[in-house]
Amino acid sequence: MQTFNPADHMVFCRKYQQNLPKLPNPPFPNAKGEEIQNTVSAKAWNEWLELQTMLINEKHLSMIDPEAKKYLNEQREKFLDNGEYEQPAGYKPPQA
User: What InterPro entries does the record tag this protein with (predicted)?
Assistant: First the structure.
């Protein structure tokens, strides 16, 4: 019988620099998805998804456009690494 270990469900989040609950599954079916699951908390990922939606809507991005995908990938990395990322008009970053 397998026992529940809370530590198995935590990750040291690269955005918040603390142990937080991890994503239950990788967000992408590849090595990048595994990396994100192992280095980004569910909280930070959900905040990124909200920001990504705002960027897509404000900039009218098409997800079939390779340049739009490249732009979002760059913004995602900047956001998750606490770098300077593009912010939609009126956007207030989440407080740690």
Answer: Fe_traffick_prot_YggX, Fe_traffick_prot_YggX_sf
